[in-house]
Amino acid sequence: xxxxxxxxxxxxxxxxxxxxxxxxxxxxxxxxxxxxxxxxxxxxxxxxxxxxxxxxxxxxxxxxxxxxxxxxxxxxxxxxxxxxxxxxxxxxxxxxxxxxxxxxxxxxxxxxxxxxxxxxxxxxxxxxxxxxxxxxxxxxxxxxxxxxxxxxxxxxxxxxxxxxxxxxxxxxxxxxxxxxxxxxxxxxxxxxxxxxxxxxxxxxxxxxxxxxxxxxxxxxxxxxxxxxxxxxxxxxxxxxxxxxxxxxxxxxxxxxxxxxxxxxxxxxxxxxxxxxxxxxxxxxxxxxxxxxxxxxxxxxxxxxxxxxxxxxxxxxxxxxxxxxxxxxxxxxxxxxxxxxxxxxxxxxxxxxxxxxxxxxxxxxxxxxxxxxxxxxxxxxxxxxxxxxxxxxxxxxxxxxxxxxxxxxxxxxxxxxxxxxxxxxxxxxxxxxxxxxxxxxxxxxxxxx
Length: 448
Known about the structure:
Elements: E1 47-52, E2 58-62, E3 81-83, E4 89-95, E5 105-111, E6 118-121, E7 133-136, E8 142-148, E9 151-160, E10 163-173, E11 178-179, E12 189-194, E13 198-205, E14 212-218, E15 220-226, E16 233-239, E17 246-252, E18 258-261, E19 271-276, E20 282-287, E21 294-299, E22 317-324, E23 337-343, E24 346-352, E25 359-362, E26 374-375, E27 380-385, E28 393-398, H1 405-409
Antiparallel strand pairs: 1-2, 1-28, 3-4, 4-5, 5-6, 7-8, 8-9, 9-10, 11-12, 12-13, 13-14, 15-16, 16-17, 17-18, 19-20, 20-21, 22-23, 23-24, 24-25, 26-27, 27-28
C-alpha cells in the first residue's frame, strides 16, 4: 500500500487537524458519545434496537443514553468464541456451573444459519483443559487443539446421537501453537508456531495426512487475517530476525509460502493488519506511524492514503474491529464495520463506516462474547450471546444510517466534518500519491 498523507478526515480533503492532538477526555465509566472527525460529540443522538433472534426480548441500545452492561449484569461467554467465515457455525470451550476450581470444560458447537440458533455440547469421557483451543468447520465438525507436555494434539469432534465422536488427526512436537481463524473455504484450519527468528505455519485440519508444515517464515509472526475467499492469501504481522518494527506481510500458500510486503506506512512504524474484506478490499489496521498507536483504514492494492479517523480514537476505551459487512464490491467506504469497545465499565459495540466518519455506540446484549459477530450482506450485525435466560441466542443490530454533518449541525459539508478552520471554508486539497518514505506523518499541513 502507498500513502500520500495520514489524515483524520476523508480522502482528498484538506487535513488541518494535528494527528497527534489528544481528544478531550470523556467522563470515566461511560461510553463516549458519537465523535465527529474533530473529536467532538455530535449534537443529535441516535438509537438502535438490538432484536434477539431467540427469547422474544428486545434490548434497546442507544448510541448516547445507554451505557455498556457491567460484568455484574451477567458473565460473558467463557473461553474463546470462534466463527466460520460464513457465520454458519461457531465453537467455544465452556463449562457447567460450579466452583471455579472444579469446572468440567468441554467444547460446544453453535449452529447459526437455521431459523433458530442452537448449541450442541461435545463432551468426551475426560474434561478438557481450559487452555484448549477450538475452531468450527462448515461441515459441522469442531477442531480441538490440546497441549500434552511439549506436544500439540489435534482432533475433530462431531455429534453422534447422544454421544461425541472423535477423529484423531495427529500431533506436532511443539511447545506452543496458536490456531488461526478458520480458512474462508470452510474446510481448513491453520496453526502458527512462532519463534524469535523463524515461524512455522501448519495445516492442522483439511490436509490429506494429518498436520503438515506448509511454510517457514523468517522472523517472529503473529496475527492472522485472510485476504481472499479461496483461503490462499494469508496476512501475518512479522518482526524480522534480529528485531526491528512489526510489518504486515502476505503469505501465498499457493506458492509454498512466498512472503511479500503488505503494509509499509513508515520505515520505523509498527504496522499491523487487524481485519480485511475480500469483496471490497477494505483493510483495518493499527499503526504508530502518526506518533502513537492509531486505528486506521486503507484499501488493498490502492494508492489512496491510509487514514486514521479521529472518531475511532476514544479517550478511555480501546477500539478493535471484528467484522466487516460483505458483498460491497469495490465500495470499501460503504462497508459497515463492527468494533469491540473495551472500557472500565465493560465491553460494548461500535458501528462505523469509512464514508460516514461517525462512530455509533450500542450496549451489547447480556452475555455477549466480546469481539464475536458477523454481518449479513444487507447490513445486519449478528451478535452471539448466552446468559441464564437464553443459553444460545443471537442479537440482531441493523447498521444505523450516517447523517451528513451539514444536515445535523448546519455546518457546510465542505468542511470535512469539522477539520477545517472556522474562519472560512477551504477548498479540498488534491491528494497525490507519493512514495511511502516521503509521506508526511507527524503533522498535517495547515492552511492558516
